[in-house]
Amino acid sequence: MIVGIGVDIVDIARFERTVERTPRLLDRMFGPSEQALPLRSLAARYAAREALIKALGGSDGLQFKDVEITPDASGQPWFTITGSTAVFVADRGITTIHLSMSHDAGLAIAYVVAEAEDAAQAAGSRGPGIEAATTEAAG
């Protein structure tokens, strides 16, 4: 059952300027394996984190450093979630989080779908943002 969706888009040039002004952001937002990537890829990963926040209904309990995007053997990106953010996700009954990212023409975009196997548990722990996203998706 889908319990939340999120999408975010990032202007890559603006993201690059922000990183140039505040290089410590890379350490605060991205895991070591991500930091070596080109800035356009980091912009897509930033969009993915923002889309995840939207799919989960808000950022309370989420830490960017607990969220890393790692590719599987075929190259498909997946979230690797640890720490307090993993607890936050588990407490909401979310069992699977789908992620799609892309960048082109100076923009990076990410789309996230959060699923739960137990509809009753997910419904009981949903925040208002997740319920609203689910209602819009169904309508």
CATH topology: Ribosomal Protein L22, Chain A
The arrangement of helices and strands along the chain is EHHHHEEHEEHH
Q: How many strands, which pairing sense, and closed or not: the largest β-sheet?
A: 3 strands, antiparallel
Low-confidence stretches: 125-139
Q: First CA to last CA: what distance?
A: 15 Å
Tally of structural domains: 1
CATH superfamily: 4'-phosphopantetheinyl transferase domain
Instruction: Please provide the count of β strands.
Output: 5
What would your notes on this structure say?
47% of the residues lie in helices and 29% in strands. It is α+β, with helices and mostly antiparallel strands and 139 residues long. The strands form two sheets. Strands 1-5-4 form a three-stranded antiparallel beta sheet. Strands 2-3 form a two-stranded antiparallel sheet. It is an enzyme of class 2 (transferase).
Quick gist of this model?
It is built from seven helices and five strands, in the order βααααββαββαα. It is of the alpha+beta class and 139 residues long. The protein has one domain (2-138): 4'-phosphopantetheinyl transferase domain (Ribosomal Protein L22, Chain A, Alpha-Beta Complex), CATH 3.90.470.20.
